[in-house]
Amino acid sequence: MNKKLAIFAAVLLVIGIIGTTWSGILVMPSLINFGLEKEAEFKKENKLYQEKVNIDKLDVSVDNINVTIKRHSSEDVRVTTRGNNEFYKYNVTLKDKTLVVKGERKYENRVKKIKNFDQLFNTSINSMFSGDYREIVIYVPNNVDINVSSVDSSLLVYDNVASNNITYKSSYGRFERVITENNINKLDTLNLISSNNLELSTKSVLGVKNVNIESESLDISSEYEDIFVNNVEQYIPENINIKEKIGRNSHYDNNFSIYCDFPIAKNLDIDVPNSKVSLTLPVNKYKFNCDIKSKERIEDINDEAEDYSDSSDGYEHSEENHNSYKNIREIKGLLNENLSNLEQEYTIKINSNKLEM
Questions:
Q1: Which end of the chain is more exposed for a tag (fewer CB within 10 A), N or C?
Q2: Cα 280 to Cα 257: distance, rounded to the nearest angstrom
Q3: Pairwise CA distance, residues 100 & 82, whole Å
Q4: At what angle do helices 2-43 and 117-130 cross, to 10 degrees?
């Protein structure tokens, strides 16, 4: 009897497995289609504002909402949203010639809003397929100055939006200018302020005359396509000034990192006395004149450093290609004497706690 029951149970188990597998195969296309529909839904732009108005400034304030600013041929100013905005609210107003755009969380209890299983299911599905991503897109027909304040958000400005000034303040964020044409638009001033880390590509500062950065830490790096900008030297900023922003979590290991395949600026001034600076520049192609001070000894991690530094007093080679200066905490003059005959000179001034070059 027990043997028959065992055989019967085994048969039911096999049937159950086959049935479950077959049901999964049948339902899979439906799930894929459902996912694609949800993805398309969150990529779709939803109109928030559209008016034919004359503006000369954008003032944007957002919380955990990415901001994209584009130029379009229409005479209207248009504002759209996309992504998962279930628990967010937006407001657009016109004050004189300034368009004020605000996006923030709805301060209500999400749990109380969910009253049944269907609402819980839909909220979970929306969060899963959207990746909790949301974005506000602003289309402008004419030149505007841009002022954006954000909490944990990124700012993306297309280069065909001509501006004199861009100011971006964020608790933690990323700034990027999208270069749509080889002829890069000029920008007078770019102000970037972050109470935490700030990320941007070197391409984002091309065409800007004066760049002012204040942050707790910084990461500026070249992207692969940067090298395809023709005559990149003519778009190098005149001045880049970098200062540290001291916060409650600040410490001596805060890193200001610059990695660039061309001179980042004609005049680079980094004043971060409580932080570390990591600087990677093409010292064998361009003439750099330096005034560098570091509280701790200066380390050289450049593979080609021995071309110009092995003979320096106090030079010491250590493991992992770290070339240290035993007692040197200051460098003045040309980084590469072999390039002294070059006409164009780029200046670097650094005041840091620690420096790697």
A1: N
A2: 8
A3: 19
A4: 60
